Structure formats: structure tokens, C-alpha cells
Amino acid sequence: SELHLTHLQVKNVTNNPIDGKEGRIYIPDQEVSKLTLTSDIKGLKRERREAKKNKEHSKKQKVNPES
């Protein structure tokens, strides 16, 4: 019995003489509006807690470098 291989079509792959074999992958579009922000939330919560403790200093005050 002879093993018979058929040529399978290779999709999204190109051969470039400079770069060699290049492939493209599919990534679906990300819905940015549904993503949650995780970077600075911990710090923001800490600032809010400190503001509740010190109610008279709850807002950041501008500092004059001249005085």
C-alpha cells in the first residue's frame, strides 16, 4: 500500500525573500467600552478613604511655590 499525500492549502502565509515565511493571524475587534480599568483603581480608593477621614482636607489644594 502506497502512502498518498495530498497538498493542503496553507492560508494566510506568504513567503518573502527578505523576511522569510510570514503568517497573519486573526484577532477579533476588542470592545473597549466593556473593558474594565484596573490600573489606578486601588490608589483612587485609598485617596477616597483618606478624604473621608480628613473632611476639611478632602480636596487637593494648590501649592504656591512663591510663598
Automatic annotation (TrEMBL):
<keyword id="KW-0539">Nucleus</keyword>
<protein>
    <submittedName>
        <fullName>Uncharacterized protein</fullName>
    </submittedName>
</protein>
<dbReference type="GO" id="GO:0000027">
    <property type="term" value="P:ribosomal large subunit assembly"/>
</dbReference>
<dbReference type="GO" id="GO:0019843">
    <property type="term" value="F:rRNA binding"/>
</dbReference>
<dbReference type="GO" id="GO:0005730">
    <property type="term" value="C:nucleolus"/>
</dbReference>
<dbReference type="GO" id="GO:0000463">
    <property type="term" value="P:maturation of LSU-rRNA from tricistronic rRNA transcript (SSU-rRNA, 5.8S rRNA, LSU-rRNA)"/>
</dbReference>
<feature type="compositionally biased region" description="Basic residues">
    <location>
        <begin position="51"/>
        <end position="67"/>
    </location>
</feature>
<dbReference type="InterPro" id="IPR039770">
    <property type="entry name" value="Rpf2"/>
</dbReference>
<feature type="region of interest" description="Disordered">
    <location>
        <begin position="43"/>
        <end position="67"/>
    </location>
</feature>
